[in-house]
Amino acid sequence: MKKLTRIIVLALVAVFVLAVACSCGGSENTNKTYFIGATGPLTGGASSYGISVNQGAQLAIDEINAAGGLNGVKFSYEMINDEHDASKVTSAYDTLKSKGMQASIGSVTSAPCLQFASLSLDDNLFFITPSSSAADVIEGDNAYRICFGDPDQGIIVADTLAEEYTKIGVIYNSDDAYSNGIYEAFAGQMGELNREFTATSFTESTKAVFTTQLQTLKAAGCEVIFLPIYYQEAFLIIKEAKSMNYEVNFFGCDGLDGIVGYAGNEASILTGVKYFTPFDAASEDEVASAFVEAYEAKYGKTPDQFAADGYDAVMVIYEAMKKAGVNDVNISASALCDKITEVLNGDFTFKGATGTMTWDESGAPTKAPIIVTIG
Hints:
The protein is α/β, with parallel strands linked by helices. The protein is built from twelve helices and 14 strands. Strands 7-6-8-9-10-14 form a six-stranded mixed β-sheet, sandwiched between helices. A three-stranded parallel β-sheet has the order 2-1-3, with helices on both faces. Strand 6 (168-173), helix 6 and strand 7 form a beta-alpha-beta unit. Helix 5 packs across helix 6.
């Protein structure tokens, strides 16, 4: 009886130890693949960005796995819908962590990615966001990005417009971190150039009608309007300007990528609109054109900048892991982060769909911009 009791006790202890191990080690990778996680808006007003990034990232995963993975180990990937809502990121992050997330492409848009950055910093989890451009997103040593940052875009656009135009106007979203970040950098650079401009703004609650802003800029004689905003509002502004017979040029940032598809059968009103982007689907560059061909074959449509960003983000993780000599499918997120950041902070150069990039400890990429003209 004592022997039977001892066996039962030992069995219960073993079950208890196993349960504790499982609860404490929920982040252990049990899928025998390297697991990359992400959050992004797959529904809602910003879903175009999330869907594009997700599809680009999945294409990269498919290509990596078709080529044999890393030393024979394949990759898995999942994006959880955050609806462009920072309050939903913690739950999504915890879910990905419980599934064994070892590295990440962060979040797609800036406000959610700021929350993701805070959580990942505590875990020393490496992430390289495809498209979150807010300056604060990459403050942590574990944080990098593919896209240009807000300050980069604002400065380059200010230099570009100051060379070509005398009277410059701006319409920006004062409620949005992305828009504010670009606008502030633009305004600062215009001050450095000793150039005046006319600024107007809107808020989330007033973004349906832009008559007042356009009338102000028209009265000021603005020849060009800078739109450091997303394409939904940009389209409404351009459409309203046309209805007012206000003949003015428009210049945007990477948030305008996707505006042609959004405009649908009204896309003709966008002719001549220019925007700053790191990716041109019509590029003859070998890597970019190969990506476009593969994307169109898989999804039946032409990729936008966000799809290219997502593709490059996954490929950077893969190439950095390869250069670091990673050969342990169960490597912890923190250990993997140390290996990847050491590579990216060194002499690593990556040639992707969005250009040739290098990074330093700031986490921001150095690469050449492209100005696309819709026509």
